[in-house]
Amino acid sequence: MAGDEAAYEEFADEFGSRLRKYFLRKGLPVADAEDLADSCIAQAAQRISQYRNVPGIAFSAWIYGIGRHALADWRKRFHETEPFSDDIPTQSLFTGEVVGDVLVDLAVRKGLAKLSAADRTIIRLRYLTDGWDFAEIGKRIGISAGAARVRHLRALRRLERILGADPCIKAHLERSERRLKRYHE
Amino acid sequence: MSEQYGNTLNADSIRPPDWLPEALASVADYDEYFGPEAERPEAPSAFRERCRQSAVCALALARMRDECHRTGFVPLSVADYFDGIAKSAGVGLDPVLEQYGLPSLRQLDSQSASALGRLARAVGMRLEVVLANLRIALAEALGVPPVAILAARGRAVPGRHTSPLEECEAALSRVEANYSAAEKHQLSQIELAARAAYDTPEATPFA
Fold first, then answer.
1. In terms of Cα–Cα distance, which of B8, B6, B5 is closest to A157?
2. Which of A115, B87, B151, B179 is the most interior residue, by most CB within 10 Å?
3. Shortest Cα distance from B111 to chain A (angstroms)?
4. Complex ipTM more than 0.90, yes or no
5. At what angle do helices A30-46 and A2-25 cross, to 10 degrees?
6. Is A34 on the interface with B (CB under 8 A)?
7. How many Cβ pairs closer than 8 A exist between chain A and B?
8. Distance between CA atoms of A115 and B85, rounded to whole angstroms?
9. Each residue of A107-143: pLDDT tens digit?
10. Closest Cα of chain A to B55: distance in Å?
11. What is the CA radius of gyration of chain A?
12. Is residue B78 within 8 Å of residue B137, measured between CB atoms?
């Protein structure tokens, strides 16, 4: 039991602070960020035995998935402004929803890897690094802002085609559509 | 899926499907905060201790849940039941009690009944079971003889009850029939509070 306690404490140390920072960066007040992070730690710890060791999904990705859903739930409760926010009851944290979303992230990574280096650069600069505008992207890769816009659009189109064939993405889109229907009902 | 791109390359007026930037942002967030390259950020020591306590409490609850599942109903007061379950499971109760805001398992009022209800739910106890344990706790606090003994008397009547819980509930009903109005009110407040713990959506979703 002492060994197990030490392992659980280490888990809490490792991911509590990460969740806290994540929630703070997403705009939560400090108290809310800490409450939510603590809640995620408690819930994940209680369900660790149910963590599904899906190939390619790191444990950290599962924790991140829990944090994402907790954030969406918090936003829905306290802001109600995002029409496309996840309308997922907390139970879904421990069903396939979290795993499904983590698989979507994995599919996106695989899709990015299939792009050309130039396409990947444009998309990373636009979405994966603090959202550079086209002037900044153009300056970085030595083209005009207008040309950067066009290349960005083409890269997105190619990525969308790649991802469109992925079963995880299809399942994700179907889930999103069902959520949207429930939201409007 | 690509219809919104159209046949022109007017990038200002065309936007990607909503899910794609969201999915890309999700990948970016993972890399920044949880990925193997992301450093563990600093956090206040009080917060870190709080998370450690939550994790240790979760471990204790998981062990207690397994033990409750193995044990089932026992005609004990709620305090004796949780004490016994924790000892059998080899876990300390203090982090659990602190997490649920319970200074003591022996305190019996609507506030503690609410917390005990949440704890019972977290370890997978059925509502009727924790209600029986709470009723036993009140009966003992009011000086009633041990309910287990009263329940055993019911076995003298063949075929009368089929389970220890039913035996106990029958014995409690006989005892509670003699409660004063104030005692009955106290019982109903405790029961209401415990029931409410099972009615509200629970942050820790247990079946």
1. B5
2. B151
3. 22
4. no
5. 140
6. yes
7. 165
8. 57
9. 888 899 999 999 999 998 888 776 788 999 999 999 9
10. 5
11. 19
12. yes
Quote the CA–CA distance of A14 and A144 in Å, as a whole number.
43
> Do A153 and B58 make contact, defined as CB atoms within 8 angstroms?
no
What is the value of pTM for the model shown?
0.76
Q: CB–CB of A138/A145 below 8 Å?
A: yes
Asked whether the beta carbons of B35 and A60 are under 8 A apart, the reply is yes
Which amino acid is located at A185 in the chain?
E
Structural tokens at position B61: 């609850």
Cβ contact B45:A80 at 8 Å: no
Q: What is the pLDDT of residues A84-114, one digit of tens each?
A: 333 333 333 334 567 677 788 888 888 999 9
* Summary count for chain B: helices (H), strands (E): 9, 0
How far is it, in rounded angstroms, from Cα A1 to Cα B95? 14
Interface subset of B 37-56, CB within 8 angstroms of A: 38, 40-43, 47-48, 50-52, 54-56
Which DSSP helix (H) or strand (E) runs through A30?
Answer: helix A30-46
Q: B38–A18: do the CB atoms touch at under 8 Å?
A: yes
Which of A 107-166 lie inside 8 A of B, CB atoms?
A: 108-109, 112, 123, 127-129, 149-150, 152-154, 156-157, 159-161, 163-164
Measured distance CA(B99)–CA(B87) in Å, rounded: 18
Whose CA is closest to A37, among A61, A58, A13, A7? A13
